[in-house]
């Protein structure tokens, strides 16, 4: 854009210089006698040059105004470019900071996931261990219930046997007492028979 402005300025300057050059330069070689001083006033040949100069000066002014406008736009664009550059630098810095945050967050998330996986594995192992313990406890409870049932059955049988033994003992004691009574009676009868025999012997 600066190169274009320079070329336009050089073109305007060239046109201005060309406007100030006299167009009737070959007429100076003509004899003065053929140009009566009264027929061609001094101001008449200069009129086209002045008009062209005015037009060219106007063009130069227009070009200068356009150049100034372009310079102003260029300055505005430069300022906008600097602002955008500064904004880009800020955004880049902010993105770098956020990327650092994201990287740290990713590390934290990965570490948290790893810890969660380890805790989940520990929980799974502990749950399996508790399940095994529960199964063992259920089995032990079942076995303990069976043992208690067997013990209760044995206690019942023992009580029944004890009751039977007590009955048998009572019967034996009763039979023993009856037997003693019978033995006593037999002894008494034997003693009586013996006395009677002795009496019979003495009487004879």
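^ structure tokens above, recovered residues below v
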């Amino acid at each position: 854009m600066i190169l274009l402005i320079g070329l336009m300025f050089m073109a305007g300057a060239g046109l201005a210089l060309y406007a100030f050059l006299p167009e009737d330069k070959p007429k100076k070689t003509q004899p003065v006698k053929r140009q009566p001083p009264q027929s061609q006033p001094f101001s008449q040949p200069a009129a086209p040059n002045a008009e062209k100069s005015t037009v060219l000066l106007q063009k130069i002014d227009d070009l200068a105004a356009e150049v100034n406008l372009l310079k102003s736009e260029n300055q505005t664009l430069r300022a906008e470019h600097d602002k955008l550059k500064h904004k880009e630098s800020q955004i880049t810095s902010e993105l770098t900071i956020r990327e650092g945050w994201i990287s740290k967050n990713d590390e934290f998330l990965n570490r948290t996931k790893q810890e969660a996986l380890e805790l989940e594995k520990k929980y799974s192992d502990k749950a399996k261990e508790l399940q095994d313990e529960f199964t063992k406890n259920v089995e032990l409870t079942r076995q303990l219930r069976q043992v208690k049932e067997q013990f209760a059955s044995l206690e019942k049988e023992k009580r029944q046997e004890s009751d039977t033994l007590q009955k048998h003992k009572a019967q034996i004691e009763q039979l023993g007492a009856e037997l003693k009574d019978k033995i006593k009676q037999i002894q008494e009868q034997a003693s009586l028979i013996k006395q009677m025999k002795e009496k019979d012997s003495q009487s004879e």
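The two ends are 188 Å apart (CA to CA).
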